[in-house]
Amino acid sequence: MADPSQSQPPSRKRPLRPWEEQGFRCPFLDTINRSVLDFDFEKACSVTGHNFNVYACLVCGKYFQGRGKHTQAYTHSLQEAHHVYMNLGDGRVYCLPDGYEVVDSSLSDIQNMLAPAFSKPMVSTLDTVPVYSRGVDGSDYMPGLIGLNNIKNTDYVNVVVQALARVPPIRNFFLLPANYAHIRSALVVEFGALVRKMWSPFNFKGQVSPHELLQAIMHASTNKFKIGEQADPMDFLAWLLNALHTALGGTRKPGSSVIHRALQGTVQVTTRPAQTADAESDDDSMSVTKTTPFLYLTVDVPAAPLFKDALERNIIPQVPLVACLTKFDGVTEQEMMNGDKRQYVITQLPKYLVVHIKRFSQNTQHFAEKNPTIVNFPVRNLEMGSYTSPPTSRKYHLMASLQHDGTAEAGQYRAFVHFRANDQWYEVQDLHVNGVHPQLISVSESYIQVWRSDEGS
Question: Considering the chain, what is the average pLDDT of its residues?
Fold first, then answer.
């Protein structure tokens, strides 16, 4: 009997296409133009406006949908002879119209710019080893000291993001997407993406646009914070911290999110009803004491006196920060609008302390007013032990100070940030990053401050 295997026709293998042969290199890689690539904006097709299955043309930088026949990317490749496209979802690169995938080590810098990746060892050295990078235009920058584009009246967002990007537990958490891979919140995803871009050594330039985060903010805040409309950075910071905490699954339980683990403390509030306060009685039986968590402390600034110097110039008064903090000494009373009097004392200090210096108010005509009083403060070794119960020595060091320049109706915000890797201070105003002497920071119109305790990482 004949061998059955001998009766089968011989198998025919199709010849390998050029790009399937070992050692093949796509001939169009040299057409890639890195200077036009920008992955900071919404990943939407420039033709259809759709935001799924989108590819970036690595030759002209435009976004197109799909890569099969009759798609926008396929048509663009035929019409313009642009052949190299990157999937903006997974970073894989293809040559069109042939459709083969391009795997080449020369593309790694573009893929890293699209989706910067950090390892735990990389994260652990950010505050100890300064890194210097160079953009495709030849400009030098330091990862972590990246300017943020002011889209339109979005400087209030930029300064808050710059401040939070200094807080190691929050920064480190968002640098590693595995920490929140299960979260479906666009706010969390885009905040993490922006923090990674700010600290990435793979940027093609020393600036980043927060456009995608701004869109997520508008949606999550139901347009409370919108591109084109100026807002108070303190209002925005309070909203952002609570929105991130909630989106990360945080609850009222202490330490239930990285936001609370880093920033939350507790303050004891004792309230004396108006009738008791008026009687100036020593009887505290009517007083009510409760402990309340906080993510920031608000301190009041004394009213600015209206007088001028010999040259008829307005004198801007100054007050030390420690004088404003006496609000929390457990003795000083503050009178409320209803006549009640309150005393505050901190019962638990956070590792990272946010201080809000209240400068803005509304007058009787409901117009915004700004108190220009300069609040003096040390850059290092702010002692907070006098404001805690029980008293305990706890020193804090300034990490960021956000300042408002101009009048209440018109003005802009900038940030002073401390870069721990080289122990230097920088002024960051939108796209501009410049070194600054620390003595200049303590005589500015500081509005929001972020402090690191000795116990902070």
Answer: 90
